[in-house]
Amino acid sequence: MVIILKAVLGLMTSIFGIIFFRDAIKNRKTFNKKPWPGLLGTGFITNFFDTLGIGSFAQQTAIFKFFKLVDDRIIPGTMNVGNTIPTVTQAFIFMTAVTVDTLTLVSMSVAAPVGAVLGAGIVSRMPRQKIQLGMGMGLMAVALIILAGLFDLMPVGGEAIGLTGWKLIFIIVMSFVFGALQTIGIGFYAPCMAMVYALGMHPLTAFPIMMTATAMLMAAGGSRFVKESSYDRKTAIALTLAGVIGVFIAAYFVKSLPLNILKWVVCLVVLYTSIWMFRSAFKKSEEQIPVEIKS
Questions:
Q1: d(CA 111, CA 181)
Q2: Domain-by-domain residue ranges, the chain?
Q3: Are the beta carbons of 80 and 216 closer than 8 angstroms?
């Protein structure tokens, strides 16, 4: 079953890659003027830490917003497209390295892309303000989950490598929901990790589940963003090229780091970015209020 999953993921990624790179090459003259080193550095650093368990979406959203690298409206599409191939790389690495129940892995990995396909079609047409509000709420939720982990308020997980019965049904439904939310720019990792721990699974099993489900949903939803031209091509290319290198270095050379201090930094940055997103959305709303002129 895992071999079939790998084959399907490989096929989906190949199709996505053809659509993505063909679109990027065709429209290369429309690339933004942002310097390559900054974009490549963002892809490398965020995917490096993504492999170690700190989701790249929260990091990238903060960087894009702070340095004004990507327009808020196309941040979700840019991240979903640009991180697809690095995440698929992670999925193949962790599916091989960590033992997890096949039924749990496959069912979650199938549910997530179904949610992503439905979500991507909606998000690619959403106005900037609604995306800002959605990302603001999502980032706030991610920050709270990180805080809960730092203060040991989250379940620490159990020893199970798979789920059965109502727990399996529940996590499949949640994978569908998380897949849809990822297309708004809300990372899959933090809510998935919290759910896996809460249902009593071994903490290590979160990694192949997170990586594989995310890879499947990104390969499925990413193509939709490309077809809708709802992403920044140059930034997505940079995330892909440098991100794959970051993944390999983190997985095979570093493997683990004391990440508590970094988690605090990421949490504070994510909170700040969340507030910034809300302010941008409400500022836009205020600008649209008509001014009544009395004669």
A1: 13
A2: 2-282
A3: no
